[in-house]
Amino acid sequence: MPEQLKDDALDRAKRRDQYWRRDQWKPLIHICLQWNDLLLELLARDLKMRYQRSAIGLGWSLMRPLSQLLVFSLIFRHVLPLDIPHYTTFVFSGVLAWGWLSTAVPAATTSITGSSELVRRPGFPIGILPVVAVITQAVHLLLALPLLFVISFIETGASTLSVVALPLVFLAQALFMMGLSYLVAIAHVHFRDTQHLVGVVLMLGFYLTPVFYSPLKASEPMALIHTWNPMAWILEGYRAIFVEHAWPPVDIYWKTALISLPMLFAGIWLVERGSARLVDEL
Question: Could you tell me which residue ranges the ABC transmembrane type-2 domain spans (predicted)?
Answer without folding.
Answer: 56-274
